Amino acid sequence: xxxxxxxxxxxxxxxxxxxxxxxxxxxxxxxxxxxxxxxxxxxxxxxxxxxxxxxxxxxxxxxxxxxxxxxxxxxxxxxxxxxxxxxxxxxxxxxxxxxxxxxxxxxxxxxxxxxxxxxxxx
Length: 122
Hints:
Blueprint: E1 2-6, E2 9-12, E3 17-24, E4 30-38, E5 44-51, E6 56-58, E7 66-71, E8 76-81, E9 90-101, E10 106-112, E11 116-121
Parallel strand pairs: 2-11
Antiparallel strand pairs: 1-3, 3-8, 4-5, 4-9, 5-6, 7-8, 9-10, 9-11
């Protein structure tokens, strides 16, 4: 599985951006898609996730402002970011979680896309 993220840029506080993450390869094996972000000098933080059943989850700091969605036909996951704040600034990464189950065991593999920079000016 290969991922390609896009959509980052510079926006003023209160503005909006939409990130996209295209998946290529054995996309039918993807169970969960996630968006992470990493601010300068900080660790990577899980921002939002969506399962193959379209169940979503968000970190508290973005609830009500960000929306994660997926277009299965296009093998693409989106992150709509509204009411952006300066603290949303960072490099955003998408990740695919692939779970492979056999009779004996279940294994999960993570695939990361390259980051896309989001800068929110105050």
